[in-house]
Amino acid sequence: MSLFGHRAVVAALLSSVACVSPALAQTAPAERTPPSEPVVDGGDIVVTATKRSETLQSVPIAVQALPTKALDQLNITNFAQYAKQLPSVSFQPAANAGGNPGQIVIYQRGIAAGGEGNHSGSLPAVGVYLDEQPVTTVGGNLDVHIYDVARIESLSGPQGTLFGASSEAGTVRIITNKPDLSHFYGRADVEGNHVSKGGFGGKAEGMLNIPLADNIALRVVGFYQRDAGYIDNVAGTRRFCGGTNFDAAGNCVKDGITVNNASFVKKDYNDTEIAGGRAALKIDLDSNWTVTPTVMYQDTRSHGAYGYDPKVGDLKLQHFLPEYRRDRYVQAALTIEGKVGNWDLTYAGAYLDRKAAQSSDYTDYAEAYDNLYSSVGGLAGYFYYKDNAGRQIAPLQNVVATDHFKKLSQELRVASPASDRFRIVAGAFYQRQSNDINQDYRVAGLATALSVNGSPGTLWLTQQHRVDKDYAMFGEASFDITPTLTATAGARAFIYDNSLIGFFGFGRNPSGNYSDTPYNGAGSSRTGVAGCFTTNGTRLREAVAAGASTTLAPAAVAGSPCTNLGNFVGGLGVQPVKASGQGVTYRANLSWKPVRGVLLYGTVSRGFRPGGINRRADVAPYAADYLTNYEFGAKTTLLGGRAHINGAIYQEDWAKFQFSYLGANSFTEIHNGPNARVRGIELNGNLNLGGLTLSASGAYNDAKTRQNLCLIDDPTYRCTDTGNGNIVSAPAGTRLPITPRFKGSASARYSVPVGSFKAYGQGVVSHQSSAASDIRTATKYPTGDVYNPAAVLGRLAAFTSADFALGAEFNRFSIELFLQNAFDTRGQIARFQECGSCGQRPYIIPIVPQTVGVRLHSEF
After folding, report:
1. Which pick of 193, 227, 263, 586 has the fewest CB atoms within 10 Å?
2. Please, which residues have CB within 8 angstroms of residue 552's CB and are 6 or more apart in sequence?
3. 331 vs 83, 298, 408, 842, CA distance in Å?
4. Which pLDDT value is given to residue 95?
5. DSSP secondary structure string, 684-753?
6. What's the pLDDT at 92?
7. Burial classification of residue 12, based on how many CB atoms lie within 10 Å of its CB (0-12 exposed, 13-18 middle, 19 or more buried)
8. In whole angstroms, how far apart are CA 612 and each of 256, 500, 673, 713?
9. pLDDT reported for residue 663
């Protein structure tokens, strides 16, 4: 569907809101206020963090919740905005993602090694759920548009018992508002805004809740949002060695090829459009059984790049090739809830289909390697970037990539009555997720004989099929030792089974039985088609050397020339490379309510992340890593429910953590590093004084390695050099990257009646301290020279930002003027470089610059 089509769908929904409301709203009582989030006496939010409905203040684990009211007041629509309010949550773009929406890797409590998010890499350590269904993906979280959402729950620490493999460090849950059988109502919101140093944006959103019968209700949501760009692609040139002229020092003179970006120069380069909708149908089969099918569709189209090059200027860069991303998904889900006797039974199943297409500029790679090999004539002298006529061509690379991600998840669980002194939750879980991966590194005009076989103009091709399966059985039991003392224990037995098959690498010149040189544009004799299996199971390079048959086995993945990632099995052909394992995670908890309004608890819990496969045969598979958490927390309710103060202190031990980085030839490798330890504290509180409400939250995390991280795996962590050039890549005691030591936010909102309406003012201040962008303090260029990646990439600077809003609320209408990032702080979300050796141009992904706008809201 075209973007015009999406706009038309949203316009039709919003028009129906405007047209239908006069006819149907009259049936609703005039004094009715649509429900926002479930509350109980004292205003405590009801959460389902333990897969039971409990008040936030009575759940003996660390949970922070943002209910509908807070989400609306803070004008939150995406992940980056709500993550700012969750002090234990940090994030960075997925590997090589460049900060595009929907490609974010989430961390909690400092459990971060950096470099995650590669399509063939580690699974996430933090799970993301939409209602009952996991929507975690290896290439970045599903950035669900936040509208008509009941609450967002952030569960800190290992949630491996109830939420499984990708909840090693925590879980983020997005809980949508469900259809309401009581009456018809709806809401509509529109916004216009302008970004400083950028363009204009806005959004239109609407919701209808429609009872169709006494036992059936439909709830539909539609939205369209345009985020203005604020990064400029400015005019520039790049000059490359010609391969023949050298100066007195022996370095090449860059008089070979000069390129410019005139056709891509654009102001406000990085705009984004998001359109989609959600529909849920609630059917009460009887007084005990309810069926709720839901479907959500979202289409995100972004253009340009979201990081700027400080060498070029503030919010500026110079890129030379097309850059865009389209990320669309549809998820269909079914939840069945009922009772068997007095036990609750829940089935939750979902199918997610996500397609992403992306084009990225990779000019920095050519620039970096032209410099690295300047003593031999740069890329022109070291590689073979020529056309079919043998003429030298520009070495620029354009990466065109697609991912087709599918996920099927099913969970069946039972829960005994919550009022019983001894109660349990138990169930079974199955998940299968797959990804069809394509990455095409194109060099315009590259000779056919130098390209990947069957793909003229492609220097490097990745064409793979990945499957990750999870099986689990879980159970958790609680026993009230006394009316104020409760013990809980649970475990999850799991099996994971991951596989990967396909092709990656360069082509192989087919002339003369694959023996003619140059073999490909990089002159590589080993990577790519050279490593493909022949029909008798021999790798092509060995077959060529032995003078044996060079007939290639059929490609296992469509679109690839052959298969070099797999295992050859006689009689079966090439089969996927597999990684599997099994184990048990656990949680034990003791909670005590010494007096009314005070809950104390202690927890020991363990989470895990599955192991997996490295694509290169000379890099061993990586094993599962485990996180063990020791935590003591307190929750207090004061002043008759008008104030809450919650906190936790903890230590987390991360055993042999999975560590991803761009290795030789900018090729992602995943290894098991040393152990790490995190010590931290979380605090959050709120105070309601009637017209004035105050809230604050913060987290401090001291996250360090406990042994040396070696450039080459060494089980002793001594990084012993046995002739392989091993060095200490990060010494013991190095702080883990990405997560700041301190992150916090505070807000104040004051409202006062003025005649027939209520006026309000709001201020929000957020702060985070500095953090390293990379864990490594030493590694090597392809030339063998040692450098410091953390220093080259630079630290994420500390920053403070502030948001303000003024508004008026009428009976069914409100208007708000807002100023976000009021002082135009250039806060740094992340730093990245385009390749492992591209330290000459580190990019900074900033928070959105100062934004001023107006927001209108109506309900009926």
Report:
1. 263
2. 529, 532, 533, 534, 535, 540, 561, 562
3. 23, 9, 10, 36
4. 59
5. EEEEE-SSEEEEEEEEEEEEEESSPEESS--TTSS---SSS---EEE-TTPBPSSS-SEEEEEEEEEEEE
6. 85
7. exposed
8. 43, 9, 14, 16
9. 67
Which residues of the chain are under the pLDDT cut of 70? 1-43, 95-98, 117, 663-666
Task: Indicate left, alpha or beta for 821 from its phi (over 0: left) and psi (-120 to 50: alpha).
Answer: left
Spatial distance between the Cα atoms of 810 and 829, rounded to a whole number of angstroms: 37
Residue owning tokens 């729950």: 153
The answer to whether the beta carbons of residues 735 and 678 sit under 8 Å apart is: no
Nearest alpha carbon to residue 367 among 418, 303, 299, 320: 320
Task: Give burial (CB, 10 Å; 0-12/13-18/19+) of 513.
Answer: exposed
290 φ, ψ (degrees, to nearest 5):
-130, 135
Query: Residue 637: which of 57, 38, 17, 133 has the closest Cα?
Result: 57
pLDDT of the residue at 98: 67
Query: How far, in Å, CA of 479 to CA of 486, rounded?
Result: 6
Q: Which of 165, 168, 122, 127 is nearest to 472 (CA)?
A: 165
Cβ–Cβ < 8 Å for 461, 402: no
Sign of the CA dihedral with 138 first, then 139, 145, and 146 last: positive
| Sequence letter at residue 736 | L
Summarize pLDDT for 397-424 with one digit per residue, the tens. 999 999 999 999 999 999 999 999 999 9
766: Cα separation from own chain's centroid:
21
**Which residues partner with 463 through β-bridges?**
438, 503
- The alpha carbon torsion through 828, 832, 833, 835 (nearest 10 deg) reads 180
- Residues contacting 179, CB < 8 A, separation 6+: 209, 217, 218, 219, 280, 281, 282, 292
Q: How far apart are CA 1 and CA 183, in angstroms?
A: 33
Residue type, 75: N
pLDDT of res. 111: 95
Looking at the whole model, is its pTM more than 0.85? Answer: yes
Distance, in Å, from the CA atom of 549 to the CA atom of 543, rounded to the nearest integer, reads: 6
For 611-691, where are the E strands, in sequence order?
625-638, 643-655, 658-662, 668-672, 676-688
* Strand runs labelled E in 285-373: 290-303, 316-317, 324-340, 343-361
Q: Where are the beta strands (DSSP E) in 416-484?
A: 422-442, 458-482
* 101 neighbors 691 (Cβ within 8 angstroms): no
Q: In sequence order, what are the beta bridge partners of 745?
A: 697, 766
Length of the chain: 860
CA 140 remoteness from chain centre = 3
pLDDT in tens, 23-34: 333 333 333 333
Q: How far apart are CA 236 and CA 323, in angstroms?
A: 16
Task: Name residues whose C-beta falls within 8 Å of residue 405's C-beta, 6 or more positions apart in sequence.
Answer: 137, 139, 329, 352, 353, 354, 355, 356, 433, 434, 435
Instruction: Check if the beta carbon of residue 278 is closer than 8 Å to that of residue 332.
Output: no
Residues 6+ apart with CB under 8 A from 851: 193, 194, 195, 196, 818, 819, 820, 821
